[in-house]
Amino acid sequence: MSHVHVIAIITATPGQRAELLAKFNANVPAVHAEDGCISYRAVTDTAGVGPFQTPIGEDTFMVIEEWASLDALMAHAVAPHMKAYGKATKDMIADRKIHVLSPA
C-alpha cells in the first residue's frame, strides 16, 4: 500500500491544551525516529486569517502525519513511546478523532 496520511483532531480538557502540546512535542523525536515516519507535527489555528477560516478552537489541535505505509502507521500505534504518551495524557484529552486517508 502507498503512503497514508493521518489527520488527528485532538481536543484537550478545558485549559489543558498547552500542557498536552508540551507532552506531544516531547514525544515527537521518538515518532520521527520510527521506521516509515515521513511527517508528524501538531498545528493550531492561525490568527488573523479572516472570515473564510473555520477555527478548530482554543482547546483543540490537529496532528498531521504522513507514513510510508499502513504497516508503518499500525506499528506506530502500538510503539512503546506511544503507549506511554497515551497513558500520560489520557486524562487531558476530552475528545479525539482520527482520520486515516489515502491519496486520491
Description:
The chain has 104 residues and is α+β, with helices and mostly antiparallel strands. It has one domain (4-46, 56-101): Alpha-Beta Plaits. It is 33% helix and 32% strand. It is built from 3 helices and 4 strands, in the order βαββααβ. The longest helix is centred in the N-terminal third of the chain and has 16 residues, at 17-32. 10% of the residues are buried. The model has no long low-confidence stretch (mean pLDDT 96).
Helix content: 25-40%
For the termini, the CA-CA separation is 13 Å
CATH class: Alpha Beta
Q: Radius of gyration over alpha carbons?
A: 14 Å
Q: Beta fraction of the residues?
A: 25-35%
| Average pLDDT over all residues | 96
Structural class: alpha+beta
Low-confidence stretches: none
Which geometry do the CA atoms define? Answer: globular
Summarize this, please?
This protein has 104 residues and is α+β, with helices and mostly antiparallel strands.
Present the secondary structure layout.
Layout: E1 4-12, H1 17-32, E2 37-43, E3 60-67, H2 70-77, H3 80-89, E4 93-101
Antiparallel strand pairs: 1-3, 1-4, 2-3
Please supply descriptive tags for the structure shown above.
104 residues, alpha+beta, Alpha-Beta Plaits, globular, oxidoreductase, Dimeric_a/b-barrel
